[in-house]
């Protein structure tokens, strides 16, 4: 079981630690709801050092990634990023990724902790024949995220980068608390914010400084529990729940990510072209109109029908909206908004209705 460079900080703050994807991680500090609400109203500080950081470098890096992933990283300008996926030959999702182009011949691919080794191995195999190298920097890279409406002002005081013009899905090199860092305007909460990539040994100093200096403005440490409720409200998928080796991007409602118009072939292309117009299942949003919380794996029914027609992938009692929400896979014919369904919660059948996602959008 790995420990992040902030393990001692989490324990000193009274975090409840759990095993997650081979790491000991904080699931909550003061409480999930309190941390969730702090991110929606002020800001939260997250330790994401369990994520995978894979550097692809060389003259052939762009072409190699175009062939390896469903997106077209070669189209990214320096300093920009996009959401991507790596698929198996059968079109199923091996992982969802963020791809940053940090220079003309250099890309940072960020993978989920649970899939880092799988993604690294697949990329290494798919780089063959291209003038490109893979450097897995995961175990020497720390990642701290500051997320929320006050994220800009809270981070700006501690960096030499002007954050205001930094666009969403952009990355810049500079300093944070006088330590070298990459600052990306990305996140997994539905709020504005930044993800800061640091040397492993710099993480504790920067975490402590940001938390202490931001306390008066409402900055709080936030754990995996709040990260999950925040991303669910924002309609963002979680690998292992909405995405897996049984699901294609089109079934997860993310077919827009797949770039069939790019030059050359890519792994999974033929399988994805065959299913793009007729997904076997569709991911929908649900609002439960009765009492109960839909949890991962709960069955979904048509009213009065005996057999389940779908399953819940994620669910929670939304702290922001004040009612239960869920994501679920159902047949395409049941995906229209306002479709009446039921969720099996223990011995009960709780009424639910299909609603558009995301469930929450931050105020503009």
Report on this model:
With 364 residues, this protein is an alpha+beta fold. It folds into two domains: 1-279, Probable tRNA modification gtpase trme, domain 1 (Gyrase A, domain 2, 2-Layer Sandwich); 281-364, Elongation Factor Tu (Ef-tu), domain 3. It has eight helices and 20 strands. The longest helix is centred in the middle third of the chain and has 12 residues, at 203-214.
Produce the secondary structure layout.
Elements: E1 2-3, H1 7-12, E2 16-20, E3 23-28, H2 32-41, E4 43-47, E5 52-57, H3 61-68, E6 80-87, E7 93-103, E8 106-111, H4 116-126, E9 133-136, E10 141-147, H5 151-156, E11 171-176, E12 179-184, E13 193-199, H6 203-214, E14 219-221, H7 224-233, H8 269-275, E15 282-288, E16 299-301, E17 310-317, E18 324-330, E19 340-345, E20 348-355
Parallel strand pairs: 1-3, 4-14
Antiparallel strand pairs: 2-3, 4-10, 5-8, 5-9, 6-7, 7-8, 10-13, 11-12, 12-13, 15-18, 15-20, 16-17, 16-19, 17-18, 19-20
